[in-house]
Specification:
This protein is α/β, with parallel strands linked by helices. It has a single domain, classed as Collagenase (Catalytic Domain). The chain has seven helices and eight strands, in the order ααβαββββααβββαα. The strands form two sheets. A five-stranded mixed β-sheet has the order 2-1-3-5-4. A three-stranded antiparallel β-sheet has the order 6-7-8, with no helix packed on it. The longest helix is centred in the first third of the chain and has 17 residues.
């Protein structure tokens, strides 16, 4: 049975962009009392890969022309560098078909991880919620798209304790689940080296009570050191390699 890699962290934004950072990296409403429960939505089954490499999508009509262009730019990377082909719907989706729906939200950025074959409440859409700040960056849109394709945050890898140290004292308890490592029984890294620069990696001070101090430190020769992590420029080669492996792109050539 194919094991999936729980990779992830959310795409990273620079700590200097404090308002943008706050709205983006949480991927949940920071005031949401159900935040801890929602962060436990983890893909467990190979059946949660999208069944076709052609994935249909639509963009909410209240998105501006610039925001629409950013979604197109974000998805072009997957069309050009993997075997996946995102195709925008020009009319209604086929009966019973699942499609990705990029929706505008006041302040929420997030989506369910992996493919859900059972529509929720009769809807065929897999919703990706994006705030205006998230819609302003193709890299963040790519981060959320990688989630819906099946990737978790990078700091959640089963081998993450070999590479980073988490300072839970600097993290509100309700956000601790965001930093849980996964098990090798349910996930795999595809032997891709730990990637501090992954678009799926949290920034060094993610969820910090004191943002001047890191919540994640890198392990270098056994010592915890502060370094930059993550970015919002776009997927790294490691991020794209995992998608190619998950969707058997080598067999699709």
């Amino acid at each position: 049975m194919l094991q999936f890699l729980l990779l992830g962290l959310l795409a990273v934004v620079g700590a200097q962009d404090s308002e943008y950072f706050e709205n983006y990296y949480n991927e949940i409403d920071v005031d949401d009392e159900l935040a801890e429960i929602k962060t436990r939505n983890a893909m467990q089954s190979p059946l949660q890969l999208w069944p076709s490499t052609r994935i249909y999508y639509r963009i909410a009509s209240d998105c501006s022309p610039e925001e629409v262009a950013n979604v197109h730019t974000a998805l072009a990377t997957f069309n050009e560098q993997t075997c996946l082909q995102f195709e925008e719907l020009s009319g209604p989706a086929a009966a019973g078909a699942r499609y990705v729906y990029y929706k505008k939200s006041d302040k929420l950025c997030g989506t369910r991880i992996g493919y859900n074959p059972i529509p929720i409440l009769g809807s065929g859409s897999h919703d990706v919620q994006l705030s205006p700040k998230c819609l302003s960056s193709p890299g963040i849109i790519q981060h959320e798209t990688l989630h819906l394709l099946g990737l978790y945050h990078e700091q959640s890898r089963p081998d993450r304790d070999d590479h980073v140290v988490i300072d839970y004292d600097n993290i509100p308890r309700k956000y601790w689940p965001q930093f849980m490592a996964t098990s090798t029984a349910t996930t795999t890294t595809y032997d891709v080296p730990y990637d501090f620069d992954s678009v799926m990696h949290y920034p060094k001070n993610a969820f910090a009570k004191d943002p001047t101090q890191p919540t994640i430190r890198a392990l270098v020769d056994g010592s915890a050191v502060e370094r930059d992590m993550g970015q919002t420029m776009g997927p790294t080669e490691g991020d794209l390699f995992k998608i190619r492996k998950m969707y058997k792109c080598d067999q699709a050539l």
